[in-house]
Q: What sequence folds into this?
């Protein structure tokens, strides 16, 4: 029985031996001890509440991508054959993903930079820390690499956007959000109505169920297609469409109700509220409240990822 | 400003409104993102991840980036899971059951049904509880179908028919007008998606509209039938005979045991074989048959919503008049009281073991009720495509139950007027114990 003090997960030696064989870890020269540590870390992360539940633990470990986990362990330990195999097999995966994120090739540099972290150039307590240590085998290694790349890309774009926004705003001019530009209000009550809509809409959105909010965010903010949104949420695209329609209808009804009941607006005034946001979309720049800018249809050619 | 205009406003807001933020230190790590992407997160982890991502713009962006980098086909072989098997098996089982039903029961035409009704002699008898299948498959059909009254057995007058037709035309016109507006607004969306998306939106609006119509159009209460014929039960073997038996002599009504009645392949074969056997002795057990009929070819397509109504003609006569062919009849254990679905959307009841039928409920064109279950003489449920669920608690008035998803439902098992479980086309099972007001996934 092996034991990792930090996680207190115990894995039976016979089980480790069986999993080690399934993972074909010996082909990389990976020690059983290193493989055991990886299994324990994975179990500790996925089963924090029931690490001693033998059946559950066995079921979980059996569901892992064991060969990928063994390869990652071997690469983290610096085994040459494992690295050669990894580079040959997974570089194309990384490049394809990078090209999907930025068709112009801008993300390839990012993909290449991941190798340094995978190898572990940074040391902690005199030990090289490889990014592979954070791969737990719950997904395939290829999917995990895509997730790492997606994280890096999002963070890079968010950082870039913040700088770009400052530059744009300093330069004044065309790219300033329409909402920041003062303009004559078409209706004397428009400013009040827009403020009301902002207030009510944010409250309504915050009160939505998590899944509804996530669906809206993916579709409207991230501009995913119905199929992509459905893939993410495990729903058919028709279901996504229906649920979006249902949520939109609920939002509209809730906004109307709040305007009528909480703010005492008449039907005519509610009409005006809706009308002023349709006639002048720029006035409903709720994003300004969060220091962000409207993301859609604003700056063609830029990445779709926006700071929030 | 009209409601569609306001809905367009909401869409516009949503495109511009950020999601309220979440603490960045709780963001999903790459391992969780990847496991989510491959569907290997367990239920609790998945729920926690969704709850965070719902409020975190960064994680939404990462998820979106992940999805964009996914290959067209899944890179990894899908892991085995019972649900995957269920998703494959459910449609296959439904198809097999339908074929078995077709073969076992034959394809009775309207004429054959009527002939059976005219020739079979036996009166209803009691049935053993174990042999109690019932529901059925009823594909879509002709748009203009039977309009007949509930128990009144009076012919539908021309004025009423015209009024119903006008109302339907008006609804369709309104839907078309809405579609035009919605399609125009959708032009700023990804061009590749506009067609499918607007179609989905169209379907959705039609479904919602018809569901709303269903609730609005429900009669406050259905009048009691002129003769409240009590139920007398017969063995399954006698179903065919009973279908043609004369109306039974009224006896004191008994509540049947809550025996869910599902038509399966085995049951269909059992029933087919049972017709060849002599009837067993009478039993005290009560059963209710739920019968659905296969619609004729060239039927109307699927669609959404229910419109209730008590129509005004004897259904057999109406069937003749409308030329709606009865292609198949799934027969449950013999019983005086039974329900069936004609053309996928007209629910009929018989109180005389199937000799005569009267319409009780009619859904809008395009609605497809596919299967039903009747646990007692006064309770029955029918389900169908797009999450349509209707039930009756008194054997007369039908009300729609609100199902949480607009997914096709392939089976229903009811234990009483309040409790039932339904299976979706992808194999999930939902149950209700409050008459369909709330559903819990099993």
A:
């Amino acid at each position: 029985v092996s034991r990792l003090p930090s996680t207190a997960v115990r894995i039976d030696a016979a089980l480790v031996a069986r999993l080690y064989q399934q993972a074909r870890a010996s082909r990389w020269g990976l020690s059983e001890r290193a493989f055991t540590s990886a299994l324990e870390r994975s179990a500790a992360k996925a089963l924090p509440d029931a690490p001693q539940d033998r059946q559950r633990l066995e079921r979980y470990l059996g569901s892992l991508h064991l060969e990928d986990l063994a390869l990652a362990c071997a690469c983290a330990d610096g085994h040459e054959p494992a690295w050669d195999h990894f580079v040959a097999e997974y570089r194309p995966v990384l490049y394809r993903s990078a090209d999907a994120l930025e068709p112009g090739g801008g993300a390839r540099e990012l993909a290449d930079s991941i190798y340094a972290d995978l190898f572990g150039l940074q040391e902690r307590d005199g030990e090289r820390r490889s990014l592979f240590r954070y791969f737990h085998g719950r997904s395939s290694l290829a999917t995990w690499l895509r997730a790492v790349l997606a994280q890096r890309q999002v963070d890079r774009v968010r950082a870039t956007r913040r700088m770009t926004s400052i530059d744009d705003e300093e330069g004044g001019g065309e790219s300033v959000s329409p909402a920041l530009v003062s303009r004559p209000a078409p209706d004397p009550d428009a400013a009040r109505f827009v403020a009301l809509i902002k207030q009510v809409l944010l409250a309504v959105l915050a009160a939505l169920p998590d899944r509804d909010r996530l669906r809206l965010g993916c579709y409207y903010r991230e501009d995913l297609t119905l199929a992509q949104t459905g893939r993410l949420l495990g729903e058919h695209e028709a279901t996504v469409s229906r649920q979006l329609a249902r949520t939109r209808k609920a939002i509209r009804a809730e906004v109307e109700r709040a305007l009528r009941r909480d703010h005492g607006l008449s039907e005519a005034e509610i009409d005006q509220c809706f009308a002023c946001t349709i006639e002048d979309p720029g006035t409903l720049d709720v994003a300004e409240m969060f220091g962000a800018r409207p993301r859609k249809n604003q700056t063609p050619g830029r990445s779709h990822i926006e700071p929030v | 400003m009209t409601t569609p205009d306001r809905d367009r406003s909401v869409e516009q807001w949503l495109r511009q409104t950020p999601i309220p933020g979440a603490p960045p230190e709780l963001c999903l790590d790459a391992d969780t993102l990847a496991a989510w992407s491959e569907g290997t997160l367990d239920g609790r982890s998945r729920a926690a991840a969704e709850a965070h991502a719902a409020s975190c713009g960064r994680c939404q962006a990462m998820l979106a980036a992940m999805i964009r980098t996914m290959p067209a086909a899944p890179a990894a072989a899908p892991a085995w899971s019972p649900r995957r098997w269920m998703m494959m098996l459910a449609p296959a089982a439904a198809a097999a059951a339908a074929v078995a039903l077709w073969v076992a029961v034959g394809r009775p035409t309207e004429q054959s049904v009527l002939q059976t009704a005219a020739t079979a002699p036996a009166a209803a008898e009691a049935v053993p509880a174990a042999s109690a299948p019932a529901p059925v498959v009823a594909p879509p059909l002709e748009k203009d179908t039977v309009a007949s009254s509930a128990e009144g057995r009076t012919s539908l007058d021309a004025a009423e028919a015209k009024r119903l037709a006008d109302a339907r035309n008006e609804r369709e016109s309104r839907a078309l007008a809405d579609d035009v507006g919605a399609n125009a607004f959708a032009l700023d969306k990804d061009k590749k998606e506009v067609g499918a998306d607007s179609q989905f939106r169209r379907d959705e609006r039609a479904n919602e509209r018809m569901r709303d119509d269903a609730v609005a159009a429900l009669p406050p209460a259905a009048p009691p039938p002129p003769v409240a014929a009590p139920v007398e039960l017969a063995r399954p073997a006698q179903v065919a005979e009973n279908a043609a038996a004369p109306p039974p002599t009224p006896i004191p009504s008994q509540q049947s045991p809550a025996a869910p009645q599902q038509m399966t392949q085995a049951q269909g074969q059992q029933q087919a074989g049972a017709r060849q056997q002599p009837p067993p002795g009478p039993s005290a057990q009560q059963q209710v048959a739920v019968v659905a009929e296969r619609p004729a070819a060239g039927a109307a397509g699927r669609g959404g919503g229910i419109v209730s109504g008590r129509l005004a003609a004897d259904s057999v006569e109406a069937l003749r008049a409308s030329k709606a062919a009865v292609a198949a009849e799934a027969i449950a254990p013999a019983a005086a009281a039974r329900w069936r679905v004609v053309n996928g959307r007209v629910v009929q009841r018989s109180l005389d073991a199937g000799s005569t039928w009267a319409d009780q409920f009619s859904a809008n064109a395009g609605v497809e009720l596919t299967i039903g279950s009747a646990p007692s003489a006064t309770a029955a449920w029918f389900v169908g495509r797009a999450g349509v669920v209707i039930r009756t608690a008194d054997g007369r008035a039908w009300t729609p139950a609100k199902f949480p998803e607009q997914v096709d439902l392939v089976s229903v098992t009811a234990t009483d007027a309040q409790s039932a479980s339904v299976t979706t086309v992808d194999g999930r099972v939902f149950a209700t114990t409050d008459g369909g007001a709330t559903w819990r996934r099993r």
